[in-house]
TrEMBL record:
EC supergroup of this enzyme: ligase
Protein name (record): Phenylacetate-coenzyme A ligase
Boundaries of every AMP-dependent ligase C-terminal domain copy: 340-427
Glycoprotein keyword on record: no
Listed GO MF terms: nucleotide binding; phenylacetate-CoA ligase activity
Length: 441
């Protein structure tokens, strides 16, 4: 049961708090309408549906959704720059995207109806963090092609709150705004939250007005949460999303969701599957597959996100009846296989940040210079304590992961900071200079 003090009012009770059986009926109707839209639009998804024997929306049901074809990032790349657009160009009101891996961007067209859905789910996410019409939202996600800045912006305005569109960077000005305007809600990446928190501390400012923050766009652990909360004196909540599906707001933690993220599943139906695409039970880690039930610009049926998490039902007795996902455990393509053991960088973060002597600035390096003998190197900066944490970290990592890593304590400031964009906490080192000064040759 949820403690009364933590219950936060729902922004859209008819959507967030509805009986799950009624929601499922709505999802089913929406799935059928989506299939009709895809078939009418023609192209890749229509062809795959036809190959699977689907001729109309009435041929599909949620119970059998796992039999329907999937789409992948590669499909989107293959259709660059229009993506899998399903409407005429004149119905597109904006385009967002992500720079993606290997410099290949993924572009996503939105209709006015898509922006409306996005504003709704983001308003819910902000409301779940305790934001109200009286709130001032300090929005330090980047504005641009990236969905973070404008996603929060649409949602904050829909909620009726005041949005301060700071975007990323220019940290001195951000510190000034926190002092002068006293925002209660902060939105940015978790790594920028740390950066800003340290800048506030260096300026001798205690950010007393901040009550909660919605941090996402990059992986971060419960241990990192402790560090963010300590630095900024707020409740640090996780927000998840991806541009292919809509952007931030696909799922978000609320003050009462018990450490997991409520999935906006009336718009984005979620499944978790194994590497063969078969559904895994709740509580088992799987790749998240999303179906955009209501999207029109670039609707996706069973999009393989590459993101790995576990799923669960709602908190028993809580007002939000949505299914929940765990914090992301990792990405299928970020999983390291070190001497036969599978490791996600987030597991390493959890071990590092559980040690008080370690600062939140670290880098995991897969050293592939000797291809036959890959090594896992971890560069950390020491935050406190007289003794080096290296030996204890090696032991703790061996205990948690079952492999031996090399831990190097490097000088303060050696690990690159991220002021704009997403933090990179994991790199592959195949040749040349070390990615962090002091990592050794
Ligand atoms: O990062 C959307 C977003 C903006 C989410 C602001 C949250 C806050 P993309 O740039 O398309 O969209 O990147 C999507 O980022 O597939 C995940 O791998 C990762 N990601 C997003 N949110 C989280 C999170 C935005 N909370 C990709 N935890 C996704 C871990 C996240 N990884």
């Amino acid at each position: 049961m949820v403690a009364d003090a933590l219950v936060v009012p729902l922004v859209e009770p008819d959507a967030e708090g509805v009986d799950p059986a009624r929601r499922r009926e709505l999802q089913e109707q929406r799935l059928r309408a989506l299939v009709e839209r895809l078939l009418a639009a023609g192209g890749l998804q229509a062809d795959r549906l036809a190959d699977a024997g689907v001729r109309a929306g009435a041929d599909v049901s949620l119970d059998d959704i796992h039999r329907l074809p999937m789409v992948t990032k590669r499909d989107l790349w293959d259709h660059y720059p229009d993506g899998l657009r399903a409407v005429e160009p004149e119905d597109v009101v904006c385009i967002h995207g992500s720079s993606g891996t290997g410099g290949r961007p993924t572009l996503v067209p939105y209709t006015a109806a898509d922006i409306d859905v996005w504003a709704q789910v983001m308003a819910r996410a902000l409301g779940g963090a305790g934001a109200t019409r009286r709130s001032l939202i300090h929005n330090a996600y980047g504005y641009g092609l990236f969905t973070g800045g404008l996603g929060v912006h649409h949602g904050g305005m829909r909620l009726g709150a005041t949005v301060l569109p700071l975007s990323g960077g220019m940290t001195d000005r951000q510190v000034r705004m926190i002092v002068d305007l006293k925002p209660d809600i902060l939105t940015c990446t978790p790594s920028y939250a740390i950066f800003l928190g340290e800048a506030l501390a260096a300026a001798g400012v205690e950010p007393v007005s901040l009550r909660a923050g919605l941090f996402g766009a990059e992986p971060w652990t419960h241990e990192m949460r402790t560090q963010v909360e300590r630095l900024l004196g707020l409740r640090a909540l996780d927000i998840y999303g991806l541009s292919e599906v809509i952007g931030p707001g696909v799922a978000a933690e609320s003050l009462d969701s018990d450490g997991m993220l409520n999935v906006a599943e009336d718009h984005f139906f979620v499944e978790a599957v194994d590497s063969d695409g078969r559904p895994v039970p709740d509580g088992t880690a799987g790749e998240l597959v999303f179906t955009t039930l209501t999207k029109t610009g670039m609707p996706l049926l069973r999009y393989r996100s590459g993101d790995v998490a576990t799923l669960a039902g709602p908190v028993p007795g809580a007002p939000r009846t949505l299914r929940r996902m765990s914090k992301l455990l990792g990405r299928t393509d970020d999983m390291l296989v070190v001497r036969g053991v599978n490791v996600y960088p987030t597991e390493i973060e959890a071990v590092l940040l559980a040690d008080d002597r370690v600062s939140p600035h670290y880098l995991v390096v897969e050293d592939r210079r000797a291809a036959a003998r890959p090594e896992l190197l971890v560069a950390v900066e020491q935050a406190g304590g007289a003794e080096s944490p290296a030996a204890d970290l090696v032991a703790a990592l061996r205990e948690r992961l079952g492999i031996t890593c090399v831990v190097r304590v490097v000088a303060q400031g050696s690990v690159p900071r991220t002021e704009v964009g997403k933090a990179k906490r994991f790199v592959r080192w195949s040749e040349g200079a070390p990615p962090v000064r002091g990592l050794g040759g």
